[in-house]
Amino acid sequence: MRTWLLISHCQTFGLANSLNLLAPGIRVEAIDIWEYRKDISAAHAKFPDYERVIVHPEVLETPGADFSTAHRMDILPGLDFRGYHPDMCYATAGVEMVSGPTAVYHSMIAIAAFNRGLSAEDTIRLYNGASYEACGYMDMWQPERDAVLARFGAVGIDLAPDLRRWSAGPPFMYSINHPRIFCLYDIARAYLVREGVETLFSDVLPPDNLVQSTCFAVYPEIGERLGVEGRYVFKSAGAYHSFSLETFVRASFHDYARFGVGNIVPDIQVQERYAALDVLF
């Protein structure tokens, strides 16, 4: 049996399981980027054992990454999409990544309000349609869609039909980089079609392991604009525990307090949108 290796990030195992279901003549083994970075020499030594190695672009940025011993190396992007969650970001305080009630996922509104010394109660009142309109959250869908299509188009995969189908139902993302399993299944199928690999497509999907992680709220006013039902309901990572917007904001402020007002910085990818939140204050 032909054997491939997949190295990606949080989407690794859903994607690998999908490839295995779709291509019964191929065994796809998988390690995520964190396991790869623990011992890259050991990983590199195994590359010749595989017919091909499929990697997320971020893997190539690992210091010491070397795929010269692989018989073939393919790049397969991940599905990152902020259209449902334009307020979501990562954050740091100095060199430390900040964690909160939804692990490393944060609300830019909560961070901006905390950094300005607002109370949790006043911050909660900022979560409304007028705020989202003012700071540009309502206009994220089209540029995010275009970015996804460009990213996959660059590696010869046309995701437009899949994206249209996903968009016709409930939100297809749990967070900005955690898609539902049917998305990964369709990406796996599109990759195999590109490669001319015969597939056995069915409605049997692998386990949706990413639902076990954080699920960020789709704010109702944003959901209404997108034609989906949104709720101010968040889910914590590693547990089936949901909580409200009020709980989320208060818990975020509690966790931010140890860093001090003005010291939490959203990740560089959202700096422009974070600056646009000035209109709320």
Can you give a write-up of this model?
With 281 residues, the chain is an alpha/beta fold. The chain folds into two domains: 140 residues, Rossmann fold, CATH 3.40.50; 121 residues. Helices cover 37% and strands 14% of the residues. The protein contains twelve helices and eleven strands. The strands form four sheets. A four-stranded parallel β-sheet has the order 2-1-3-4. It has a three-stranded antiparallel β-sheet with strand order 7-6-11, with no helix packed on it. A hairpin with a 6-residue loop joins β9 and β10. α1 crosses α9. The longest helix is centred in the last third of the chain and has 14 residues. The chain starts with a strand and ends in a 5-residue tail after the last helix.
Q: Which topology of the largest domain does CATH recognise?
A: Rossmann fold
Shape verdict: globular
- Give the tally of structural domains: 2
The percent of residues in helical segments reads 25-40%
CATH class bucket of the largest domain: Alpha Beta
Uncertain regions spanning at least 5 consecutive residues: none
Compute the separation of the termini in Å: 61 Å
The oligomeric status of these chains comes to single chain
Tell me the Rg in angstroms.
20 Å
What percent of residues are in strands? 5-15%
Label the CATH architecture of the largest domain.
3-Layer(aba) Sandwich
User: Structural class, please?
Assistant: alpha/beta
Number of helices: 12
Main β-sheet: number of strands, strand sense, barrel status? 4 strands, parallel
By DSSP, the count of extended strands is 11
Strand ordering within the main sheet: 2-1-3-4
The pLDDT mean sits at 96
> Could you state the order of secondary-structure elements as H and E?
EHEHHEEEEEEHHHHHHHEEHEH
